[in-house]
Amino acid sequence: MRDNQNPARANNHAVETIDLSKKFGDFTAVDEVNITVHRGEIFGFLGPNGAGKTTTMRMLMGLLQPTSGSATILGFDIVTQKAEVHQRIGYVSQRFSLYNDLTVVENLNFFGGTYGVRGQHMEERREEILNMAGLAGREEELTKNLSGGWRQRLALGCAILHQPELLFLDEPTAGVDPISRRDFWDLLYSLSNQGHTIFVTTHYMDEAEHCNRMAFIQHGRLVALGSPEQIKLEKMQGQVMEIDCAAPDRAMGIMRESGLFLEVSLYGALIHVVAEEVASYKPQVKKLLNKEDIEVRSMQLIAPSLEDVFIASVTQKPGVA
Amino acid sequence: MFYRTWNLIKKEFTQLFRDRLLAPLVILGPLSELLMIAWSSSQGIDHLPTAVLDLDNTNASRGLIVAMENTETFDPYFVDNLDHVTGDIESGRALAAWVIPRGFEARLLAADQASSPVQLVVDGSDVMSAQTAVATAGGLVASYGQSVAFQPVMAGAAQVPLDMSLRVWFNEEMKESNYMIPSELGFIAAAIVAMLASMAIAKERELGTLEQLMVTPLRSLELVIGKSVMAVSLGYVLYLLMLALVVFVFDVPMRGSLTLLMVLSFLYMLVELGWGLMISAVAKTQMQALLITIAVIMVTIIFSGYAFPVDTMPPFMQVISNIFPLKHWLTVFRGILLKGAGIQDFWQELLAILGLGIIIYTFTIILLRRNKLE
């Protein structure tokens, strides 16, 4: 049935967009975005709120009509071949769109039936999913009584019952506790190992580091595209220095006012500053902070995290990147 | 695909019966409303003060007055001239009046006479009383005529010779009888269908599951059909239950063809379903869907002759009333139920319902296409 082996589509990418754009009146939500997602990879789609992540995803799934440009999913056109696309994708939305008044097993049965999974095959898949999601033994529980992490795994289960080639996840871990988040990502890895392509939006930077490749989007424009390492290399202007000091809130203000750095940001109780040859600013930093009676415990060069890159990218004016 | 639609229908019923609020509301609400209306309207109207002007003063006329009193709808008292009748009706002292003309008995007994007229005057401004008076008088005159016809004197007479000439004051064209109960029945099941359909789709939209469904192979048409099957089958079962209740418990006559009634009711429900689907295309939440449906129902009640006869409305409102399918349906429904009417009697109303159905569905399809998700 499944046509992974079909030579006509064998070389197609999981997702390919060409100048994909969406306007709402005068507002351009997505502006000529070109991305390619390879089969089998975990692709992260990042950007601040309102950057156009969800709009892009909704266009790719056929929920919104692009204003211009085009895109293919698994080789099928998103506008003219929706039925083919819908049969082959799974979708876990931000809100875990399950039926809260149905039980775990009723949700699975309904979505299975919707995708045409039935009979013996359905029973096998249901067992697999229940085991995978750790929901075995809770089949008859109402979905509304499940906690966030369980519900999210059930939503994932409902989306992969039909073994989709491509799985879309829209901020799937928003509002989920850290342990459930880790478990969830373990599930995503195992799905990826089974050959599913995964397209995930997130604003957790640590999650983005888990992706094979990713895209940054801002003001509807693509800012960066590549593996996390590539992006760090290409997009990070300058180096990052981590400052550990007392009164970090006040210290951050002082660093900003000094005008020495391209970027100053707070990571928990630590301050990250960005500049070319940033180590050469150590004496100045120490002097500035000591003048305000702030004790400096340590200063060291660190490898930029994706978050540094992300902040550097989004604080640049559009087009400067 | 049939399987996907069937799968959706199963889900709808699972959800419906699990809903602790909606299921009882949908089933018990209409039944209790019907019961309340039936009791209040069947018990409220009797012993109408009735002025009787007996100009004949014979055995036949006195017999009619006794029969009238026995119905318990009329409480007759005698007056001696026509001005008195007029005055009592106008002042509200009498809600109905009978005028039995001179020569009533003579004409009743004369074999060559086609019929013998009596006159009933009712106060049309009190619609409910007037309806009851007319309905009761109709039955009374028919049965009284028959009993006279069986007297030996009348042996061999082909026709029932008693005729009632009716004058309704302030409301010249009042025709229907047995008003409220059939109205309620004709209206409520359809309203339930519209409400269920509109809320079922709005619910998916409100909870975000609609978006989920739109990225599955489930087509919009399958979704609409699945929801409609749920709404219509539930509405229809309720309707049959209430019909049985009305006929067996409240003794509303069932004079026409039951099969015809059931088939036409089903078709009419499909038209009302169109309203529900149209509302579902615009409502974003269940609450919106419910409020819009109620608003539509309120307007429908006013214009359709559900509570007030269309004939008592100002002319321009009578024209507007034609765009409400319920108005035509009530004519059909009462026709079958009370008069034993067949298609030949109300084909115009059926055509009107059909035409309105086509218009409603055209708009519904346009709106559903345009407002799907964006």
Describe it for me?
Chain A is α/β, with parallel strands linked by helices and 321 residues long. Chain A has two domains: 3-226, P-loop containing nucleotide triphosphate hydrolases (Rossmann fold), CATH 3.40.50.300; 237-303, Alpha-Beta Plaits (2-Layer Sandwich), CATH 3.30.70.100. Helices cover 36% and strands 26% of the residues of chain A. Chain A contains twelve helices and 15 strands. Chain A has helices spanning 7-10, 53-60, 82-88, 104-114, 119-132, 148-160, 178-193, 205-209, 228-235, 248-258, 282-291, 306-315, and strands at 15-24, 27-33, 36-37, 42-46, 68-73, 76-77, 89-92, 166-170, 197-202, 213-218, 221-226, 239-245, 263-267, 270-275, 296-302. The two termini of chain A are 45 Å apart. Residues 1-8 and 317-321 of chain A have low confidence and may be disordered. With 374 residues, chain B is α/β, with parallel strands linked by helices. Chain B folds into two domains: 2-41 and 176-371, no CATH class; 48-149, abc type-2 transporter like domain (abc type-2 transporter like fold, 3-Layer(aba) Sandwich), CATH 3.40.1710.10. In chain B, 66% of the residues lie in helices and 9% in strands. Chain B is built from 14 helices and five strands. A five-stranded mixed sheet of chain B has the order 2-1-3-4-5, sandwiched between helices. The interface between A and B is medium-sized, with 27 and 24 residues.
What is the total domain count of chain B? 2
Number of strands of chain A: 15
Biggest sheet strand line-up of chain A: 7-8-9-4-10-11
Number of strands of chain B: 5
> Distance between the terminal alpha carbons of chain A, to the nearest Å?
45 Å
The mean pLDDT of chain A is 86
Largest sheet of chain B: 5 strands, mixed
